[in-house]
């Protein structure tokens, strides 16, 4: 039998890599697009974009995600042609590629959610296929010039184009070499004067300085190769360059000494690739990609160490009670405690990602919104060196997206309105953030748009206009409230502010603030913790109250069979602890509602959660299990509520805090209480 | 010098707290009890996303529990970085009270309130007791040790 290969692991790896590649791809395409708008080509960015699509295609093919392969393949082919044409790209092509990138992102997102990737949109494929490949011909003609690779490589795409045009027009391309020397200098010939003289008889395409062996002829070890499109005769050009006519090298039309075009172009291109590779190597050499789950695993192991330290501390305390001198051990224990704390901080640090990286996707989003709304918006981002826990970043990003969408869709006015209001036609969206303290990040999304219309918002909510920005924000955060009559294509109906608040406040335990000035703009400020603890948990009910407990803490969920439980005798007349036998082990069962002194509702608990405390099993009887889910653990630090057995609180989505229990600690305390007859 | 004060009622008495120490006021719709906490701790509540302990001031002042009414409010105050909610019977007013109106509490009040009242102010016929928020929430530091 053949062993089936499980693609699951590969898909994980693919997703991690694909995200980076897509980021690089869209960043480079945006750079190209921005350059094109100013009439500049950007061959380097194009090369990077080509590389990203190429790698992405390969990875997607490995995990057999056909739709991604199909799109990436066509993008790659387009980019390859453009690259071969000296890195030239047109605006419509850049635009189409950006659209295609968005489609790739959608498919990667689907795969990340465990869904199959949607088939590529047929019109996209059609348009990618139909797009005219950049005229590689022109570049080829240019490169058919008898240029040394070292010099050809110094020519930019525009210069290649300039040469191609000249060749196509049947003009002569020549090369003149000028080598400065004291003698020539005395004769008034230096590179500046030569340039000036040449400009009268030729079009100077490029002046390439070269280092040459120092000779009598070239005492400075320096020479200039001037690539020219001659308008005057060879004699005139040579005279202007201060050289003999026979020293002039004719590069066109293509003659016997023409090198193969591809070889010509390939040489500098390969150089560049190698350079690029080593550059990447340098950057990536110090970076390791790690799945978050592995970091979490390290954290769990560390938690076990911390528990062991507690046990050790207790054992030492017992020794001390017996009169043993434990000063040295206690000192070591204290040191050990500090080290464990540092270790914990170090592991948490591994989970941090730069906020700048999270925000990299925003320009592409804004670009799409710009096109959908016809508004002009520029994005200014300043994330500095701020970092966020990966888990916080993932939760925060959708809130940022909402705020950005709102700003472009609702806040920033159309160009004509802005002009009428005396503002620049292009609106500005600013995203900035900084670490407010060692535990909190402050992120602001600000626009210079129209400001929130108090009256309209109040009218929609059916209340009188709020006076303060805080009260206005409260209204905006009402679920389903929209300040716009019609749903928009990009934001949909509603402001989504309830979602922003849900994420920042309810999920992350942060804050949202808003400042708005009519006609001047609006700023939303999110304050969120830098790290959060996400815990996979069981939720259950005991004594009419809901609780959650981390899944990792529960060894087993047992069906309680009371008939098999034995009640241990108790010395003090109180009810003893129930005991039952499980796989040869005696397990004490405590009713959680008794431990917590919760009201009994008459029914006997049906389930029990088995946990271990220092290797000893303890079961907690509970009324019923409710479910399993990931929860954000918020520590309860206040001494009023920081109690044994309570690890923190969480929000299960009802806006009410639910206690997260540490059943192991609770078990220890409760058993100790049962033994001494003292109620916990 | 005068300062804004939040005025609230617990039992038949009126109390005041400097508005500068009050983070927010919320209506009360129940708290999540915390087993093992002091009897006057009603539990924890989530106010604008923040989880804070809620002190039942009736219990804190030794008054009998009453049926909850819609007037009950949570006054969230902050001291030394600790936000704590106070459950009061009602809170409706914010008053500007000149500093000189405050006098040291009469001995009887001081004894009975176990030092929870810092000063009293006579505003017309009303007697407002200035709450010592730090004492009410307990002089404990965040790591649980006593000052």
What would you note in describing this structure?
The complex is a heterodimer of chains A (680) and B (147). By secondary structure, chain A is of the alpha+beta class. Chain A is 46% helix and 21% strand. In chain A, the strands form five sheets. In chain A, strands 14-18-19-17-16-15 form a six-stranded mixed β-sheet. In chain A, helix 2 (43-62) packs antiparallel against helix 3 (66-84). The longest helix of chain A is centred in the N-terminal third of the chain and has 30 residues, at 8-37. The radius of gyration of chain A is 35 Å and the shape is elongated. Chain B is mainly beta and 147 residues long. Helices cover 10% and strands 50% of the residues of chain B. Chain B contains three helices and eleven strands; from the N terminus they run βββββαββββαββα. A six-stranded mixed β-sheet of chain B has the order 8-1-2-11-10-9, with no helix packed on it. In chain B, strand 10 and strand 11 form a beta hairpin. The chains are: A alpha+beta (680), B mainly beta (147).
Write the layout of secondary structure elements.
The complex is a heterodimer of chains A (680) and B (147).
Chain A: H1 8-37, H2 43-62, H3 66-84, H4 91-112, H5 122-130, H6 136-143, H7 149-152, H8 157-168, E1 172-178, H9 182-186, H10 191-198, E2 202-211, E3 222-230, H11 234-241, E4 249-250, H12 261-284, H13 292-321, H14 327-350, E5 352-354, H15 355-359, H16 362-373, E6 377-382, E7 387-389, H17 390-411, H18 415-420, E8 427-435, E9 440-447, H19 454-461, H20 469-476, H21 497-507, E10 511-517, E11 521-529, E12 533-542, E13 545-550, E14 556-559, E15 566-567, E16 578-582, E17 585-591, H22 592-595, E18 607-613, E19 616-622, E20 624-633, E21 646-651, E22 657-661, H23 663-676
Chain B: E1 2-10, E2 13-18, E3 22-27, E4 41-47, E5 50-56, H1 57-60, E6 73-79, E7 82-88, E8 90-98, E9 102-103, H2 107-112, E10 117-123, E11 126-131, H3 133-137
Parallel strand pairs in B: 2-11, 5-7
Antiparallel strand pairs in B: 1-2, 1-8, 3-6, 4-5, 6-7, 9-10, 10-11
């Amino acid at each position: 039998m053949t062993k089936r290969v499980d693609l699951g692991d590969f898909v994980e790896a693919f997703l991690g890599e694909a995200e980076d590649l897509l980021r690089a791809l869209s960043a480079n395409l945006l750079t190209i697009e921005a350059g094109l708008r100013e009439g500049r080509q950007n061959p380097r960015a194009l090369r990077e974009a080509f590389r990203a699509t190429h790698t992405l295609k390969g990875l997607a093919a490995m995990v057999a995600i056909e739709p991604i392969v199909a799109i990436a393949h066509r993008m790659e082919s387009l980019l390859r042609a453009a690259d071969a044409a000296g890195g030239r790209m047109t605006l419509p092509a850049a635009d189409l590629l950006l659209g295609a990138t968005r489609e790739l992102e959608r498919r990667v997102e689907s795969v990340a959610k465990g869904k199959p990737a949607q088939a590529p949109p047929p019109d996209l494929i059609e348009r990618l296929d139909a797009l005219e490949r950049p005229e590689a011909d022109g570049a080829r003609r240019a490169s058919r010039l008898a240029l040394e690779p070292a010099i050809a490589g110094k020519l930019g795409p525009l210069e290649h184009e300039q040469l191609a045009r000249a060749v196509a027009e049947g003009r002569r391309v020549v090369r003149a070499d000028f080598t400065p020397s004291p003698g020539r200098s005395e004769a008034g010939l230096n590179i500046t004067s030569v340039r000036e003289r040449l400009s009268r008889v030729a079009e100077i395409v490029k002046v390439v300085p070269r280092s040459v062996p120092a000779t009598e002829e070239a005492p400075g070890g320096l020479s200039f190769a001037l690539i020219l499109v001659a308008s005057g005769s060879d004699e005139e050009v040579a005279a202007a360059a201060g050289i003999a006519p026979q020293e002039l090298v004719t590069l066109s039309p293509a003659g016997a000494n023409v090198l193969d075009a591809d070889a010509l172009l390939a040489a500098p291109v390969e150089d560049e690739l190698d350079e690029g590779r080593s550059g990447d190597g340098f950057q990536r050499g110090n970076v390791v990609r790690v799945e978050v789950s592995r970091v979490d695993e390290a954290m769990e192991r560390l938690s076990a160490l911390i528990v062991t330290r507690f046990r050790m501390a207790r054992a030492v305390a017992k020794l001390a009670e017996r009169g043993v001198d434990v000063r040295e051990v206690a000192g070591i224990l204290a040191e050990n405690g500090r080290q464990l704390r540092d270790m914990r901080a170090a592991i948490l640090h591994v989970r941090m990602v730069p906020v700048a990286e999270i925000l990299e996707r925003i320009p592409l989003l804004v670009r799409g919104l710009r096109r959908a709304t016809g508004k002009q918006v520029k994005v200014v981002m300043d994330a500095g060196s701020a970092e966020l826990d990966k888990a916080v970043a993932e939760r925060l990003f959708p809130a940022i997206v909402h705020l950005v969408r709102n700003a472009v869709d609702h806040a920033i006015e159309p160009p004509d309105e802005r002009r009428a209001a005396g503002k620049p036609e292009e609106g500005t969206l600013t995203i900035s953030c900084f670490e407010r303290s060692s535990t909190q990040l402050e992120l602001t999304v600000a626009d210079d748009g129209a400001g929130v219309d108090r009256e309209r918002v109040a009218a929609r909510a059916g209340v009188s206009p709020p006076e303060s920005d805080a009260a206005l924000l409260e209204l905006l955060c009402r679920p389903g409230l929209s300040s716009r009559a019609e749903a928009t294509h990009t934001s949909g109906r509603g402001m989504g502010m309830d979602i922003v608040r849900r994420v920042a406040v309810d999920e992350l335990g942060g804050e949202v603030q808003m400042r708005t000035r009519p006609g001047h703009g609006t700023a939303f400020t999110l304050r969120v913790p830098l790290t959060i603890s996400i815990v996979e948990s069981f939720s259950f009910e005991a004594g009419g109250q809901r609780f959650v407990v981390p899944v990792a803490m529960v060894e087993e969920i047992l069906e309680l069979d009371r008939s098999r439980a034995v009640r241990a005798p108790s010395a003090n007349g109180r009810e003893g602890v129930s005991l039952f036998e499980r796989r040869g082990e005696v397990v004490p069962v405590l009713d959680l509602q008794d431990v917590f002194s919760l009201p009994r509702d008459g029914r006997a608990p049906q389930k029990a959660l088995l946990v271990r405390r220092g290797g000893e099993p303890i079961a907690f009887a509970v009324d019923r299990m409710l479910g399993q889910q990931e929860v954000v653990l918020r520590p309860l630090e206040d001494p009023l509520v920081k109690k044994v057995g309570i690890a923190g609180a969480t929000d299960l989505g009802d806006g009410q805090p639910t206690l997260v229990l540490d059943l192991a600690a609770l078990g220890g305390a409760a058993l100790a209480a049962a033994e001494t007859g003292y109620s916990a | 010098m005068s300062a804004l004060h939040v005025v609230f009622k617990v039992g038949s008495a009126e109390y005041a707290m400097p508005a500068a120490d009050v983070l927010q006021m919320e209506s009360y719709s129940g708290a999540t009890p915390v087993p093992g906490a002091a009897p006057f701790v009603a539990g924890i509540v989530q106010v604008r996303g923040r989880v804070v302990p809620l002190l039942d001031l009736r219990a804190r002042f030794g008054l009998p529990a009453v049926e909850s009414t819609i007037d009950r409010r949570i006054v969230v105050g902050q001291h030394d970085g600790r936000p704590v909610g106070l459950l009061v019977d009602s809170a409706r007013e914010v008053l500007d009270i000149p500093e000189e109106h405050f006098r040291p509490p009469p001995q009887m009040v001081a004894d009975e309130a176990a030092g929870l009242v810092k000063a009293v102010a006579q505003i017309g016929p009303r007697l407002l007791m200035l709450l010592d928020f730090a004492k009410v929430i307990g002089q404990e530091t965040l790591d649980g040790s006593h000052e």
